[in-house]
Structures are given as structure tokens and as C-alpha cells.
Specification:
By secondary structure, the protein is an alpha+beta fold. The chain contains 15 helices and 32 strands. The strands form 5 sheets. Strands 14, 15, 16, 17, 18, 19, 20 and 21 form an 8-stranded antiparallel sheet that branches. Strands 1-6-2-3-10-11 form a 6-stranded mixed sheet, covered by helices on one side. A 6-stranded mixed sheet has the order 5-4-23-22-26-13. Helix 4 links the parallel strand 8 and strand 9.
């Protein structure tokens, strides 16, 4: 496998590029397939027709693809159609020669819906053997993309998925994707990489640092419209921490402050797209109620450092070619320093790529959309060759960039200090000072979540309420210090009698509340038996060795339970057990 890229500054460069590609081809013993990709900010009909015609004169069997993006890079240098970069190349072309593998390009235009496109791609996946990777290149935002990604997630988990969003706008007159004359302004292109000896590795790089408090999504209108965070209007959170108000002319100034979340073992980012007058917040990709979010901030030094660590790791894979999809947010944040993200690896491995408006990757089987990510995709045929020695390139930051980096470092340090102090306060607020058990308020909050999950999954649980018989007599006879010692001892007995997934809390006074998750009556009876065996040691604490009994009320979950109904049954069962002659009884309800 060999890859050759060339920047195009003027029309004559294409002929020179093709001659160099021909030279690369002649150095290979066998070519099983050839993928030729033209990247430019604009793809005119004439440009693509001339490019494909010139390419096929030399490589008649080539798979020719044209992609329009804002800007990109090859050989460690930029190409762009922007007026503020007059010295940059206007386009780039990459030739990827395979020795034993092949690539299948598939175009799904905007006339077919996302589900039909997904099923069409799945059909190809099921018909082909030895698929190693699939690249997804979207012309623009398409409705139903999450459903498409969910369907693709059912594909063999060994298949690597990667991709990017070429444009954030849809213009029916603009060609964004050109596959052998099939020109599209909507839809997406899929590149299916097939080969028994082909190896593909994708490594993500983020670089944004989370800061400030974590909030939970408590209500959404749809998958991209957040209504409430921590049961408050979503806009209040951004108004408080970022000073964002509805009706701002532009949110561009806060695009470098995305929301980040953890999903499927990876950190994902969501950009703020709009804030509505009703307090709803529209974000760039899907979210789910119950997920927890934090604001993140871009740190130029951290972004480049993480990119270089990623490429150091990728070199151990011994890639023969590297394709990079990098978010436009990196370009905006780094500006003239953007080349330092890929400069070092471009000296070792043929490297090319483009800047995207969203990225697509797979983690733990799930294909997902994210933002502000750099995806580095390494390709290799056969066993690893000699591992290239990666040497980072030190960026030359200006004063402004250094100030930003210092500010982000300061915020990061303050956030960690705040989190440490906050966690200690949470422990104090949620724990009973005497026994160290969860207090009643924290237990009631946890029980709501446990009950919700149990009812949704139809999984039984049991709850018990208990207290010490004649506890007042212990206090009156031996003093409150002795009573406290007995409560601490009982708390230890309860802890050792339940599993780590169960919850033990102090309800108040000498009453305790225990939640047994995933438990039926038989499981509850076994726990009660262990508690009673342990309670026999309580008499040893008493100066007069008096017998200490426990009254226990137990209730089992039912299909239509509420927190109140469970508490009432457990309390009634405990009351009944205390009224039973001799006490020290267990009552089930």
C-alpha cells in the first residue's frame, strides 16, 4: 500500500501530480485498487470532468471521488479557498494505491431518506466479506442521521467507522460530492474498505477541558432540543455561566465553549446552535434525558499536545497512510498554529485530510456524531513494518495564545479545587454524622431512581425498615453515649449483611431503612437472617448483657409502586412487628 498527495496551486500542477503518481505506481509489484480523492473548496462540473478525464488517461480503473470542504491539508501544508489565505494551495489530490485490498465507493443522494440509505449500506455490508472500515462523508446536515447511525451500529463490531460533515449549510446548486460524475449537494458518500490483509485504526483527539458544575438533562423536546437542565430552563444555565442571552445576533463567540458528555467510553461534544425565547437550547447533535453535561473550553496548548500524543500512539500501529478529519473548531481556535497538530506525523507518514463541521466515529460498537474532535485514521496492509519514531514539533505560540492557555489552565485548576471541596460537602450533606450511613434525604433521592429503573426493567426489589427494641431504655439506663455506640454497632451489622449494590441508610433516631436491589422474598429473608445473627452481638455491648432485639418490616415491590406507597407499606410492616408480643419479629407486606 502506498499513498501520494499533492497540493494544487495552478492548473499545470495536475499534470505534474499525475506523472508523480504514475511513478509511485510503477514502483509497486501489484496494484489491487486505486482511490483518487480531490479536495477543493468548490467543485465545478468542468473541473471534475477535466480532473477525472485526465486521471483515467493514466489510471483507467481508478475510483475517482471529489469532495468540497472549506479547507484541508496534505503533506503537512494547508489548502483553502479563503481569500485571507492567498499563499495556500487551492486544492489537494490524494492517490491511495492498494496492494491487496479494495475500496467500494457508494453515493446516497438527498432524494432517499436516511433509513433507506442506511439499509442500502447495510445490504452492501452483509454481502461483502472482510470489510475493515467504512468512511462516511455527509454533504450537509440531513434529517434522521441518528437513526441512520443507530442502524449502522448493528454492523459487525470489528468494522471501524469514521467520517465527517463537509458543510454546515445546504445549497442545492453547490456540488459537495462527486463520484464518477454522480454529483450531489445533499446526501452522503460511503467508502467501504475491504481486504483480508487490511488493518485500520482510528484514534480520536479532543483537547477541550471541562470546567464548572455538572448538570443533568431532565427534559428534552426532541433529540437536539434541551428544555430543562437540573429541572430548570436550559437557557438559565448558559446565561449564568457564559452570559448568553436569547436574541444574540450570533453564537459564534461561544462556539469554543461546547457542552461535553461521556458516552460509550468516550468524551463527546455538542455545540450551541440556538437559544429560543422560551428557554430551550438547540444543540448540534443528539442528547438523551438523564445524560450529564459540563461546559468545556478550548486550550490551544492542550489541543496540540493531545494531537501529538495521539499521533505518537498511531505511529506504533505502523501506518502506511493516515487520513485526518479535523473539526473546524480546531482551525478557529489554533489559527496559524493549526499545522502543528499534524506537522510531525506528516514527516513520517503520507498524511492528508480536511476540516469538518461534525465528526463521526465508533466507540464500543456505537456509531456516533460529535464535534470538536480530530480523527486520525491509520491504514496498513499486512503485518506492521518498522515503527516510525515520532518526534513532536514545538509550536511557536504568540502572546494572545499564551494568555488564553494560561487562563484555561487557571480555570482548570480552580475547577479541580472546587470539585474537591464540593465532593467533601456532598459527603457531609448526604451522610449521617454518627453512623456514616446515607441519610434519609439522600436515600429518598436515590430511591426515586432505583424505583424508576426497577419498574422500567420489571426487576423486583425489597425494602426493609427496622429499629432497635426498647432503645429508649438503653439511653435512660446507660446514657446517650451507650445508645450512640449501639447505633454505630447496628449500622456496621447492616453494612456487612447486605451486598455492595444495596443501600443502607439511617431513617432517623434508632430507625434504619434498607433497599435490596434485584431481590425477591427469598433474597430478603436471607438478608434478614444475617441481620438477626449479627444482632446477637449487640447484647455484648450492654453493661448488663441484656438481650437486644430488632423489629423489622419488609415490603416487596409491585407493578404500580410509588416512593410513597413503598414507604407506607414498610412503615406499616414495622409498626405491626413492634406490636407483636415479644417484639424482635419480622413482618412482610
Amino acid at each position: 500500500m502506498k499513498q501520494f498527495s499533492s497540493l494544487l496551486y495552478k492548473e499545470e500542477d495536475l499534470a505534474l501530480c499525475l506523472q508523480e503518481a504514475k511513478s509511485v505506481a510503477s514502483s509497486m509489484e501489484h496494484i489491487s485498487d486505486l482511490l483518487v480523492m480531490l479536495f477543493a473548496s468548490e467543485l465545478s462540473v468542468n473541473t471534475m470532468a477535466d480532473f477525472e478525464r485526465a486521471t483515467r488517461r493514466i489510471f483507467p480503473q481508478a475510483k475517482v471521488v471529489g469532495l468540497a470542504a472549506e479547507c484541508g491539508f496534505a503533506n503537512g501544508k494547508m489548502w483553502s479557498g479563503a481569500d485571507d489565505m492567498p499563499d495556500a494551495a487551492s486544492a489537494a489530490v490524494t492517490f491511495t494505491f492498494f496492494s491487496s485490498s479494495r475500496v467500494i465507493p457508494l453515493a446516497f443522494d438527498g432524494q432517499s431518506d436516511a433509513l433507506s440509505a442506511a439499509h442500502g449500506l447495510i445490504k452492501t455490508i452483509t454481502q461483502e466479506k472482510e470489510i475493515k472500515a467504512i468512511g462516511l462523508f455527509f454533504a450537509g446536515q440531513i434529517p434522521g442521521v441518528k437513526k441512520l447511525l443507530d442502524i449502522l451500529s448493528d454492523a459487525d463490531e470489528e468494522i471501524v467507522f469514521f467520517g465527517g460533515l463537509l458543510s454546515d449549510q445546504t445549497d442545492g446548486r453547490r456540488i459537495v460530492i462527486d463520484l464518477s460524475g454522480h454529483r450531489m449537494s445533499r446526501g452522503f458518500l460511503s467508502l467501504v474498505f475491504v481486504g483480508a490483509e487490511l488493518h485500520v485504526k482510528v484514534l480520536p483527539s479532543f483537547g477541550w477541558k471541562p470546567f464548572g458544575p455538572e448538570v443533568q438533562i431532565t427534559r428534552m423536546a426532541d433529540e437536539c432540543m434541551v428544555v430543562e437542565l437540573d429541572e430548570k430552563p436550559a437557557s438559565e444555565f448558559f446565561s449564568h455561566y457564559l452570559g448568553i442571552r436569547h436574541c444574540w445576533e450570533s453564537l459564534a463567540s461561544v462556539e469554543t465553549f461546547p457542552m461535553c458528555l461521556n458516552r460509550n467510553g468516550i468524551t463527546l461534544a455538542r455545540r450551541l446552535v440556538d437559544i429560543h425565547a422560551d428557554g430551550c437550547v438547540y444543540v448540534s447533535a443528539d442528547l438523551v434525558e438523564g445524560e450529564r453535561l459540563r461546559i468545556a473550553s478550548g486550550d490551544p496548548i492542550a489541543i496540540i499536545s493531545e494531537a501529538q500524543r495521539t499521533h505518537d500512539e498511531l505511529c506504533e500501529f505502523s501506518p502506511e497512510a493516515v487520513f485526518i478529519i479535523n473539526c473546524m473548531g480546531h482551525y478557529v481556535m489554533l489559527q496559524k498554529n493549526n499545522v502543528y497538530e499534524y506537522a510531525a506525523i506528516s514527516r513520517l507518514v503520507p498524511t492528508h485530510g480536511f476540516y469538518s463541521f461534525a465528526e463521526f466515529l465508533r466507540s464500543k460498537g456505537k456509531v456516533m456524531k460529535t464535534n470538536l474532535m480530530m480523527l486520525s485514521v491509520g491504514f496498513r496492509e499486512g503485518e506492521p513494518k518498522e515503527v516510525p519514531i515520532y518526534k513532536p514539533v514545538s509550536p511557536q505560540f504568540g502572546e494572545q495564545t499564551s494568555i488564553i492557555a494560561h487562563l484555561v489552565h487557571f480555570v482548570d485548576a480552580m475547577t479541580k479545587e472546587w470539585e474537591s471541596a464540593h465532593s467533601k460537602l456532598v459527603v457531609l450533606a448526604e451522610r449521617d454524622a454518627l453512623t456514616g450511613l446515607m441519610n434519609r434525604r439522600a436515600m429518598e433521592r436515590s430511591f426515586k431512581d432505583i424505583l424508576h429503573d426497577a419498574l422500567a426493567s420489571d426487576i423486583p426489589f425489597a425494602v426493609m425498615m427496622l429499629d432497635m427494641d426498647d432503645f429508649k431504655g438503653i439511653n435512660d439506663t446507660f446514657g446517650h453515649a451507650m445508645g450512640d455506640e449501639a447505633l454505630v454497632a447496628l449500622a456496621d451489622i447492616l453494612r456487612s449483611s447486605v451486598r455492595s449494590v444495596d443501600i443502607v441508610s439511617r431513617w432517623g433516631g434508632d430507625e434504619f431503612f434498607v433497599i435490596l436491589t434485584h431481590a425477591d422474598r427469598a433474597a430478603a429473608e436471607r438478608v434478614v437472617e444475617r441481620i438477626h445473627r449479627g444482632a446477637s452481638s449487640l447484647s455484648l455491648l450492654m453493661p448488663d448483657k441484656r438481650s437486644v432485639g430488632l423489629s423489622i418490616g419488609v415490603t416487596l415491590s409491585s407493578a404500580h409502586d410509588t416512593p410513597e406507597s413503598v414507604f407506607q407499606r414498610a412503615d406499616a410492616a414495622l409498626y405491626e412487628s413492634k406490636r407483636t408480643a415479644g417484639k424482635n419479629k419480622v413482618i412482610f407486606r
